[in-house]
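pls ignore typos typing on phone
alpha-L-arabinofuranose + seq
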Amino acid sequence: MKLTIDTTREGKELGDLFGIFFEDINHAADGGLYAELVQNRSFEFSPADHEEYNSLTAWEKIGSDENVTLSIETKDPVSSKNPHYLAICVQEAGCGAGVRNLGFNCGIALKAGAGYFFSCYARSTELTGMKISLREKNGETLAEDMISLTSQWKKHELVLTPSETTDSACLELTVCKAGCAELDFVSLFPKDTFKGRKNGMRKELAEKLEALHPKFMRFPGGCLVHDGDLDPDSRTAQYRWKNSIGPLEERPARRNNWNYNQTLGLGYYEYFLLCEDIGAKPLPVLPGGFDPHHQRAAEGRQLEAFAQDALDLIEFANGSADSRWGSLRAELGHPQPFNLEYIGIGNEEVGEEFFERYAFIHRIVKEQYPDIKLIGTSGPFAAGEWYERGWQSAREENADFVDEHYYQSPEWFLTNHERYEKVPADGPKVFLGEYASHGNRWKNALAEASYMIALQNAPAVALACYAPLFANVDYVNWEPDMIWYDNSHVYVTPNYYVQKLFMNHQGDVLLEQTFQDLEKQMIIREQSDCLSGRIALEANDSVVSFSEIRVIDEDHDVCMKFPDQTADRKKRLAELEPVISSENYIIRLCAKELEGRKGFRIQFARHDDENKLFWSLGGWANSDSILGQDIDGSNSCLIQKTREIEAGRSYQLEIRIRGRKVEMYVDGILEQEHEVKPLAYRPVYASSSFDRASSDIIIKLVNLSSRNQTVQLELKGGKNTGWSGCAYIMDGYAPEDGNDFESEKVKPREETVIAESSSFSYELTHQSVHILRLHREM
Ligand code: AHR
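k done
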């Protein structure tokens, strides 16, 4: 196989192609990147955040119930934005009664000899002093100091230096005399944060981001952005950026969509600083006046406020230090602008209510700031009704980008290489704002690497970022994730290393390349790849009766009738016999949901529980008709359309399978059709780029096959000189290999490359990623 690269012919500008996406999911901010060590520092946790939370979550009384009472008060708080505070009353004099905070995970992680900033607000008319200690769970004191109490709220600040390293300490606040005191905003921060910033980021986590060299950072979510009340002052509000800036006490702790509480301590100002610190362009996502989860839509003045938020954010980021919002930025410590270029309007909202609101906000922003690049959305599905509608909206409004999201099987990524090849580059560009194959194994990372080659090569793809970024192992909402940690350790996944290689070696511009003698397609698993197989009828957490079941085998001209079936929560699945061996057949039946509200599924081409196609009607939000595919238990949504299932109504359903084509009918009307791709892909994918600063040629190669492949590399253009440099290689792992706290088995290695001339052969090990970074020998 020969790969010819013309080193003098440039193609697509790669711009800000590969970046990252941060969302406070899996305790990525509080209990993660945001370095605060105290959990529930302002006593604002509430059952609205999580069914098991209350104002004393993560706090424990020290002392007997008779001696110590803890109560939550709201009269005359430090800030009305965070109205709860702790009142502690001790009956009997004697040291050691009080309260302790347990931190996140197994406790507070401390390093011997390092400094920790303690702060709190306190007041007392009866007590004069309070002891502040860091202690091991066994009671051993690691550091302590005193604060003097005053009758009015006062902020106290100390530096504590623990004598030992531990990952399971707690912070104690105790008194020696009888009396009452009130406490709020109890905080403990390592001095040693990323870049030494106050209210900063956990160093070893932020360093993992910096090492990626991302071109941009999308933040703060995700569903986190759009799920919530439209009123910014509501306890369960959507993420409104103005709530997240200024003094910490004035930032209202809020319900986080991921079933916990967000302090907003990591807010927009900190996000902008972090972007600057890691060299990434900021890419904030604002809610677009619509909550798709609860179908709340802003009208009139309320909608105008969403547009105003966008205008004010631009002024906050870019305005001069004497503008209204720019002056706030200067006051916070950053007179220089943050050079905001991109804004997302909406996360993955779809529905006419959203598209109308997108248009409204888009026009207002573009009128005042035509150079700001605006990003529309095509929803949470890779194809289908809403996906198309999202693109239509973006084209109508001249959005600069369309934000696509999908989480699919590794095989889906391998077989969808051509997805963007034909998307015109002169309309809105593709921003792949969330994607991942289901898993953190080598096979996932390898599939993503080959897909990233396609993203790099496709003319219309401009921005892409993997999701989600972080997961605290003790608070997992979503998997897979790129970076995993507890309170004192961190490890990164094979997916992280692939992302890192692609970001570290992106290049500025594509170089023209041609492949010769490349095997066209490799068919994988031919046997399980045909659309014949078993049929099964399934209830989606509901009770469903299936009747008038017929399968018409068109290849053998046979019509099979089956007895009526019922599927319910106990017996979810009714399998039909015999197995269909035909390539052309029709499944016909009536389905009626008797109980529940999630509808039903018809499985077909079922080889086993983990490998099948299915048509799901209803689903988790009872809003979709989806053709899905499971491969080795890993799910992909192939196409989607809106459909709500009415309980008690009988639906006439028909699936026609003709070779690889699937047509789905409801009550005689074609609902959707789709050509299921064969499980086939090329053995080797490549992309070549040029890095202007270093004058390096970067060749990215992914070998998906289980054989080593020799590539003859021909670097055309310029003098016929030798080339030398480095190869960054990921190879030699089993598909299921992954990393963990004990070992990072899957990580790149480096090899020197020296080529005597512009034509040389290079050995691509099997199932590997190779990135060659070469410069011309003079
Ligand atoms: O990345 C996890 C979630 O997936 C995001 O919050 C949401 O946008 C998507 O559905």
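The mean pLDDT is 96. The CA atoms of residues 192 and 247 lie 21 Å apart. more later
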